Each structure stands twice: as C-alpha cells, then as structure tokens.
Amino acid sequence: MAATPNHDVLSNSSEPQPTPNVDLGTCETVALETYTFPRERLRKILSDSSKTPLVLVSCGSFSPPTNLHLRMFEEAADYCEFETDFEVVGGFFSPVGDAYKKAGLASAHHRINMTRIAVQASSKWIGVDPWEPLHKEYLPTVKVLDHFDYELNEVIGGIETYTGEKRRIHVALLAGADLIQTMSTPGLWAQEDLDRILGHYGAFILERSGTDIDDALLSLQQWRDNIRVIPQLIQNDVSSTKIRLFRKRGKSIRYYIPDNVVDYIYEHDLYKDEDKKQSEKGKEKASSDSTPSGSSEIPATS
Fold it and tell me: Does 276 reside within a domain?
C-alpha cells in the first residue's frame, strides 16, 4: 500500500531527518577535493511506486536568496503532486560560481552560506549543493544537471521502492519565467545545451509577473511537452535585484527574505556599497590589463 507523500517532511520513516551542519565560520575551507554530495535530505524510499521519482534543481545567483526562491520549490512540489505522475524526493539550490561575474554577485562563500541558512530551519527536504560554486571556472547549466544525474543515479544508485526495487531518479530544472525568456532569445544558449536541458531533463517554470511566458514559449515549441508552467496563484514580485537596491538605499529588507539571511547580510555588511565595490573591481582590472603579468581574466558570461 502506497504511503501518502508529504513534501513538508519528505521522509520515509518516523526517524528525524538530519539537518546539514552549517559552520558559517569554516564554509570557505570546503573544496572540490573534499566535496561529497549532500544526500542527507533526500527521501530514502519512494512512497508511491507508480510514480516517477523527481529531484528539482534550481540554478541561479541567489545573491541573496529570497522567499520567492524558497516558494518555487513548494509550488513545484504541489504542482507535481496534483498535476503530474512525478513524486518529488528532493530539491537543491545550486548557486552559480564566482566566474559568472554578474553585477551584485556576492562571493560564492557568502552565497553558499546564505542558501544553507535559508533552508536549514525552514525546510526538511530542500538542500544546497556547493559543487558548482566550488569551481573556479563557469559551468553551463547542462553540466550542473549532468552532475546531479550522475550523483543521484550512478553514485547513490537511485531510490528504493517499498518492494526493494531500485528506480532511477529523474532530474529537472526549476526556474522562474525570466529564464525561459533567455532560452528563447537567439544566440544566448547553445542549441545542444537547450536540447539536453529541455529535451532530456525538462523544466518546471514558475510564472512571474511582468514576464510574457507564452511569447517566450513560442520559439521553444519542440520541447513544449517537457516545459511545465506552474501558475503563481499569489503574486510575489520580490527579487534579489530589488533586495540589493533596498540595501544600497539603506531601506529595510526584512520579511522579503528569510530572517537568518537578513541577519547574515547585516553581519557581513553585504550589498551596502555595491557601486563602490564594482568601481574598485573595474580599477583593479584596468590596472592588471596595463601590466604584462600574463594573468588572464575569466570572461563574463550571460
């Protein structure tokens, strides 16, 4: 008899789910050489063997993570439970690495910390994978999804059903509607990457106010069956960009993002002098470009 899934818990027994140990003082010492996949919050047993096990992966800057980023996982879990044949067995934030060089991007160390503390006490099933931001080079989204597929199915070996059968876990991208807009823009994404991301993995896309998702989907028709659009029944327009702007202007950011993340931002004085820091980075780059040091800059990517 299949158990009734509850994505607030996502556990396969009465045993308490382990909470990832977040040592904010030593996070910067984590390295690829010592990396292990964070499997602690994955469900161990599939509740309904008639469904396909699914792990949702959200790639992005998360500078900082907002309540809407967290809500995306909950909205997607509800959508999967009531509208699909998927059973969500886990979810992960995968912050982009420092090589992305986007304006307003806090260091990978801070963004790993902020996403971890955002989910530490608020969720029992959403985790943070530091594999992508631990790389010095920029990693395309398709490589990140391939990494999750490898770890979940080749290393861990998938997930068990109640009969002991092993099942492969399907990996899918979780994102906001603005990502689909970029995917529909000619030249921004490699065709082979789109084919693997949308054709092989698929995407769960949360509607966002101000984004014409129908127009964006017109040029992605060949993958339309693998793009599942989740309606946002309660509109939430908060964004990391707006949080950074509020912070720069000295305005309160509390209740737009998790309280512990607010405290972390204040403690580490993040996003306060963003323009000044960007200007200083520009001066440093100009200085390095004028000296024949032989060092190379990693190009910014879109």
Answer: yes
Residue 250 lies in a domain: yes
Instruction: Please state the three-class secondary structure of 56-88 as a single string.
Output: EEEEECCCCCCHHHHHHHHHHHHHHHHHCCEEE
Give pLDDT tens digits for 242-261: 999 999 999 999 999 999 99
State the pLDDT at residue 203: 98
Give how many domains the chain has, as a whole number: 1
- Catalogue the long-range contacts made by 76-85 (C-beta closer than 8 Å, 24 or more residues apart): 76/174, 76/204, 76/206, 76/230, 77/7, 78/7, 79/204, 79/228, 79/230, 80/54, 80/204, 81/5, 81/7, 83/228, 84/228, 85/50, 85/51, 85/52
Residue 6 domain-assigned (yes or no): no
Alpha helices in 150-300 (DSSP H): 177-183, 191-194, 213-217, 240-248, 259-267, 274-289
pTM metric for this prediction: 0.83
Name the nearest CA neighbour of 96 among 56, 33, 144, 42. Answer: 144
Q: What is the pLDDT of residue 29?
A: 56
Residue 48's CB: how many other CB atoms inside 10 A?
17
For residue 50, report the phi and psi dihedrals to the nearest 5 degrees.
-85, -10
Reading phi first (left if > 0) and then psi (alpha if -120 to 50, else beta), residue 28 is in alpha
Q: 276: pLDDT confidence band, cut at 50, 70 and 90?
A: low
